[in-house]
């Protein structure tokens, strides 16, 4: 992993980090800042010794980024914590971790403190819990400076803190020093975390899933900040993630981990374009692509990672590998050079046979794309299963303890209308806070006092006042939750979980038994698993139980609230395939809420983009994604990372400034004006229109529709958007292309 | 209903994996193992069981009972005839201690169990319904907390409760009064816990399936705060035993001829100097009783707490290398 693809400076003012370091005479480029050799970590558990990390080796060059990729439980995070010396004392760590030639393993906590936060720093996954709520962010940044620079003056520290906050892109940094963490949004807090991490110009920065807890647009911002931070400090970065898309654009080298071992390492292009290990190929095939319209099934990697209590006798991936032969079970394969490129290594005895021409879908025998009986019927002729007419949900915002004054209204959902036809998957996308979940809850509540009309299967909420009518509606509409662990009562067996809706529907015991067995088969679970508790299943299986529960009463419409966002990529593919299959076989309709646009593109027929309680663009999924008209849709789409390093590096990205504005001070005209890249580039006269008038949701003009379609002779396109200037220029400073190595202005 | 009868190979593979790797350890097994690993807690459990056994079979070890007066041995120190000596009335102290221990354990267990049960149902109901129901129930709860329990106990067991007293033995009356005043703190705690449980998706899922509220409280909320309930039971038992001792000590709890540890201790305080055995024997038993429960409580908390640092037993089997810090 010595050779990298680090950027050449495009203009004379900016030097690449490695070059600047060379000039400073600090390191010669061949010297690794961090070198890990044969790292082994063992934990004691109730079941025995878990060998969580088994022989990890890597060298990290200054200014380079190493991406560590793998499923949960593959030992990525444990590796990083072992390097930082943050594992609990019960863990046994063996091997060698050298930082600038000095051995870190075996140092006691106190000696380790001299390195932590100074030479080696870490950014954690959850920004909400990694800042202390009782201190100001200024105090927390200063703390990091004080510990490692005891002689620094107070003024100098404050100046440095301001500089750091500005570097990570926090507006008016001087005032924000005195702010407390709760006054920041999640993305802002992650920026503060990065500022703290780079405070002492670390040589190595470890980022453990730094963007997993964030929205896509914020994820793009934070990745950008990390990139800037790396350029400013010249630090080497270890980026830990399960998302192959995230690292495609920023990593130089990739290490794929499985069952505590690296199974494939190499330069980023080699890994993505010429994978030589079936696991890597599976991971790449499991990711839905937001930029591909053609519909193929995803590659599910069957099974779950092995139990690390037992020493594997063969290749640890063999039980899940479609290409397994007896030779695979005979000893664990070594990490050997593969593919011909320098530094590219794979731990597979068949790596030579797997060229870039190998077809992942074929190898993993992905199921064929299921076809629904409704697919052939034009949309207009299918029955409507759900219709929303001008649904609103406003929350009053009050102030004062005794006398509550109304100081404003939060318009969580503001005049939403759409319909869902039989056999159709309709998705709502948008950032957190855009009102997606509130919309779902409004539908699930189904109450006559609601503002607006909800019609489910021909039954309106205005008429359904009796309990009987409401329970009839409950049979039409069921929900699958985001977190499969939270949605199943931990004290219920699967049988009890599935029996609950059936008992409620008044079925007798015999019928319930029969139906439960049917359901287990339907979602691909073993019928004899009914006596197990949810904690005895993996995440994907739990979500299957959740789906089975939703299907128990034979609903027509299933509401999916981020159904796969809590799952690993490989498991996610299996659940998506199942959902797709069920929709086709049972003629179900889905209403899905998701922030992962690639999943939406894969599974949906129609999509609505929401911003601050309003739909800004709605239409057929391919049309909206291939030809987005509203600037917000364009920004969302450009923020999605694509698992394709070359595309990712050269792609033009729109980085939205700031966060979703508080619904309280929503603008009078177009809601999006405060963050709009088009608006920022408009002349003042046109800006006036955006600020004062609210753009209505209108169909794509015939001419534009004709341009996008080859034939041109089609009925009005199924795409509506709310923007006055869809074709306007985008503001320069919101565009980022990495290849030009333009330092991103904070 | 469908033609989707093919069994997912993933599930099969996983099943085989789960079967072969014995990864499934029942939660109760884990809790039991963790509890047994805590020596103090096991010792506490043994002492408590020993005392319970003693309170039931102890009576057969001596020919005397708590009512027979031995006129030849009044206020005598321990001897071969009276293992623990006699009281000033000439009653065998061993027999009285056995009887007193039984009454104290009985009061402790009943009050501990029932008050936690009341608290669980009350707290969960409050949390589930929220709004007006919550406000009214909370008001009742607060009112009970502010009621001077001591006075009510005094009135109920001595003066005002004459009608009751005729029909009920004094220990039962004390149990009822203690019950009325012992569940509020736990109920408040359970209310706040349930409120956070209410936010969990499985409660929402049940609501969206149209499951009636009564069933949701009973089937989803109460079992899920189970571990807290177990802890609170041991605490409640200790509390009830101590309260009984305290009330009896100041003379408003158990009334003669019923005997309890508190009555014995209270009766002997004035003569600690002259007849020390009358005071120290019941006091030691009480210490053993409450002490053993406290020891158990610590172990139970360790066993139930999912974030407990109680490491696996596997550690002992292995040569432990010096972990890097």
Rg calc of chain A: 27 Å
The mean pLDDT of chain A is 82
| Helix vs. strand class of chain A | alpha/beta
**Gap between N and C termini of chain A, in Å?**
31 Å
The residue-averaged pLDDT of chain B reads: 77
Kindly report how far apart the N and C termini of chain B lie.
59 Å
Overall helicity of chain B: 55-70%
Bin the helical content of chain A: 25-40%
Radius of gyration of chain B equals 26 Å
Of all protein chain pairs, which has the greatest interface, and how many residues does each chain bring to it?
A-B, 70 and 52 residues
Oligomer: heterodimer
Please give the number of β-strands of chain A: 26
Shape of chain B: elongated
The major pleated sheet of chain B works out as: none
- Spans of at least 5 consecutive residues with low confidence of chain B: 1-24, 310-325
Main beta sheet strand tally, sense and closure of chain A: 8 strands, mixed
Number of helices of chain B: 15
Regions with little confidence, pLDDT below 50 for 5+ residues of chain A: 1-29, 709-714, 740-746
Q: Which word captures the global form of chain A?
A: globular
Q: In total, how many beta strands of chain B?
A: 0
SSE series of chain B = HHHHHHHHHHHHHHH
